[in-house]
Input
Amino acid sequence: MNTVGLIAFALVGATKAIREEFDMFGVTVVGLATAFAGGMTRDLLVNRIPLALMAPIEISLGLLGVGLAIGISIALESADDHPLTQISDAIGLAAFTTTGAIVATQAGIPAFGVVAIATINAVGGGAVADILLDRSPFILLDDFYASCTVLGGSTYWVVVTTGGSNGTAAAICAVMVVGTRTAALIYGWSLPTAQVLGTTRE
Amino acid sequence: MNTVGLIAFALVGATKAIREEFDMFGVTVVGLATAFAGGMTRDLLVNRIPLALMAPIEISLGLLGVGLAIGISIALESADDHPLTQISDAIGLAAFTTTGAIVATQAGIPAFGVVAIATINAVGGGAVADILLDRSPFILLDDFYASCTVLGGSTYWVVVTTGGSNGTAAAICAVMVVGTRTAALIYGWSLPTAQVLGTTRE
Amino acid sequence: MNTVGLIAFALVGATKAIREEFDMFGVTVVGLATAFAGGMTRDLLVNRIPLALMAPIEISLGLLGVGLAIGISIALESADDHPLTQISDAIGLAAFTTTGAIVATQAGIPAFGVVAIATINAVGGGAVADILLDRSPFILLDDFYASCTVLGGSTYWVVVTTGGSNGTAAAICAVMVVGTRTAALIYGWSLPTAQVLGTTRE
Output
């Protein structure tokens, strides 16, 4: 699952950079940032040297995603809106949320921190990529994307706290993320803005 | 004081995100980032796990600020320009500057580092929030805001170096920040740009 | 070399901020960020307290660069496009790449990590400065700039791996960066975008 996630995230990030006409170095950096910036931030927060810098295999998977993006972009418009990419992305989101929750729990961080680190691990890369592309991170604006990781991270914490094993918690967390994200894609879920909340109260 | 600061900073950040029509997740993230990103950066720089992730009470205060912002935004225009918000913000600025200076001093960091970490602790959150909102950090552009924290941090270091206790230094630092910030608000202080400097020399 | 780099980087960053009419605090922050953000990120990644916060001499050099930028901007247009600035910048790029590679190697980080940290050390400051100026980092968009550091970092790693001493590796790495960067400036090298790659294949 983590493998699928790394490739999918790098592909999505690189495709966005290609659309903005970044050069090859820029496309590679944005692709790798999307795949690794969340995990590197997680490792910084729990005070260890980022795994991504120590594991050549992970980087190769990221580069594969970037290569795929370049290859596909020549053959195909909008590779990042393709259903296959979106499903891979949902699987990646689930894998990254789960990994984040596990690392945070092992570092002895309490409830809110676990959810925060799971979320940063899963969506931090995409947010960094958007900042590099000079936009507001899309996760803050609309769509029901980061909310899936918040739900997943909370579920993980609830299961572990109520006596479930790490394995059970991880499985339920992953199902929760893939499930809510798929539902959000199919039914077009989104969170309201304060403006909408204000209007409905009038 | 720190309590007032966390609530005020989260309120100011969330209000800016509401104005940009971010969704509820985005408003929460920008509010929490304004309240906590400075302190988290400080903790990363002195190499420890961010306190914010370990302390549920602090997060609750941040969420209270976000909730206030959402509630107030429905009742009121421009909650972040309200005098009460500006005074709370000045108190928060003082509290965060002082905390930053204390943490840096305890970590054995010399003069410039103390001022730098005090400043990052106090204004880093607002800078991150502005980057998430896709603007240049307002602290770099005009106003006499970050300058108050530089003055406060320098004062702290001078007092400690000349033999004052940490408590004395903290008190003088806090008074310095609140004082200069209030004066800046009342008299409309701002720093010159290089263009202005160039013109006045001609 | 590191001295030249710190002054040149601070000068280039501060000049960009002056052109955007940032106030004196903003100009100073952007200048210092250009000079130090790469090295601070490097230190965070290898899990130590940033050297810049511990070394007053380095900061003084950064402030000297900022002061030069302010002085020159009043006398001269486009200080950052001046040949002398560009040569200083190339020397700085080489110094920072080499320092990054040495620190990463000492921290026991493998091949890709060494190149990544050398690159972040050399171009991270400029990227942070561009984000503060609300643009996409210029290194991602065009020019043959970050590529020089990737080549330099890779060279360093190859020399060390094939049995060369750290000193030899550092010297060859520095020559490689200055050489490729100078050639890129003279001959106007740049990397292709995916669009260009797509076109040439048709």
Notes: Residues 2-201 of chain A form one domain.
